[in-house]
Design a protein that fits this description.
By secondary structure, the protein is of the alpha+beta class. Helices cover about 25% and strands about 30% of the residues. Strands 1, 2, 3, 4 and 5 form a 5-stranded antiparallel sheet that branches. It is globular, with a radius of gyration of 13 Å. The C terminus is likely disordered.
Length: about 90
Amino acid sequence: DQLSLQECEGVGVAEVKAGSFAEKAGLKKHDIILKADGKAATDKWQFRRDMRAALAKGEFDLEILRGGKRETLKVRTDDSREEGQK
């Protein structure tokens, strides 16, 4: 209620591993992921499948709720693409 979310809306972040794609994208502990690659995060099992598919891409967006505000983070999973842009 306090976050103005529907029941089963979003997946909470319990931990962000150092050096992970999530950390590089700016994801933080206690963020709530609302969408991954445009797909709503409403069921943890479907969310896992959606994340596996998204991670296979070069990049995707995560829509999150942090501190009561919605934000979009860009996740890059293709390190070679990033190196080519430097």
